[in-house]
Write a structure and sequence with these properties.
It holds the Pfam family YceD. It comes from Chlorobium ferrooxidans DSM 13031. This is DUF177 domain-containing protein. InterPro entries: YceD (IPR003772). The protein has one domain. By secondary structure, the chain is of the alpha+beta class. The protein is flat, with a radius of gyration of 24 Å. The model is unreliable at 146-155 (pLDDT under 50). It has helices spanning 34-38, 120-129, 149-159, 162-174; strands spanning 9-11, 18-27, 41-53, 57-71, 78-93, 106-110, 116-118. Strands 2-3-4-5-6 form a five-stranded mixed β-sheet.
Length: 175
C-alpha cells in the first residue's frame, strides 16, 4: 500500500543514539484502506513507538491500540473492543545483520541516507492481526465461549458417573 505522505513516520534526521519514544494518534480512515475499515476500525488509532538507535542498527518496538466494532458471532448484537498489538522491527544500516538472529523480530535494510522510517503499514498489519477469530458478548452468558468456574463446578458431579469409574478401573488395570 503506497502512500504519498506517511501517516506514521519516525524522523531519523538529528536522532541521537539511545532510546526515544514517539506517540502518534491518527484516524482509522487516514489509512485509506477498505480492508482496515471493513475490519471494524472506525475511530482513533494510538501508536507508541520506542526507538533504540545505535551506530549500525535502529530498533523500533511498536505498540498499537484501536477501538473496533464487531457483531457477536452468536447473537449478532454489536460489540465494541479495544484491540492491542505489538511488533518489533530491526533496521540495519547498510547491509544484512552480522550475526544470525532468531525469534519474532523482523530485520530490514535501511538506507544510510534515510531521513525517516514509515511504519504506517506495520501498524496497519499489527492491528489487523490482533482481530479475534471469534467475537462474543462479554455480558450475555449464553454467548460466552468459556464457561465460568461456577458452571464447571456444577458439571463436576457428572464426572464421577459410572462410565468414568469404569474407565478409571481399565486405566488402573493396564497401567
Amino acid at each position: 500500500m503506497h502512500k504519498e505522505k506517511a501517516q506514521i513516520e519516525i524522523p531519523l534526521a538529528g536522532l541521537v543514539q539511545g532510546t526515544h519514544e514517539f506517540d502518534f494518534t491518527c484516524k482509522a480512515r487516514d489509512f485509506r484502506d477498505q480492508q482496515f475499515t471493513d475490519a471494524g476500525f472506525t475511530d482513533e488509532v494510538h501508536v507508541r513507538a520506542t526507538v533504540g538507535k545505535s551506530e549500525r542498527e535502529v530498533r523500533v518496538a511498536i505498540e498499537a491500540s484501536a477501538d473496533a466494532s464487531f457483531t457477536c458471532d452468536i447473537c449478532l448484537s454489536p460489540v465494541s473492543k479495544t484491540l492491542e498489538g505489538t511488533f518489533c522491527i530491526y533496521y540495519v544500516c547498510g547491509g544484512p545483520p552480522e550475526e544470525e538472529q532468531t525469534g519474532d523480530e523482523e530485520y530490514r535494510i535501511l538506507d544510510s541516507n534515510a531521513i525517516a522510517i514509515d511504519i504506517t503499514e506495520d501498524v496497519r498489519e499489527t492491528l489487523l492481526l490482533s482481530i479475534p477469530m471469534k467475537v462474543t458478548c462479554p455480558d450475555n452468558p449464553e454467548c460466552l465461549l468459556y464457561r465460568s468456574e461456577e458452571v464447571d463446578q456444577a458439571a463436576q458431579p457428572e464426572e464421577t458417573s459410572s462410565w468414568h469409574e469404569s474407565l478409571e478401573k481399565l486405566k488402573n488395570k493396564y497401567c
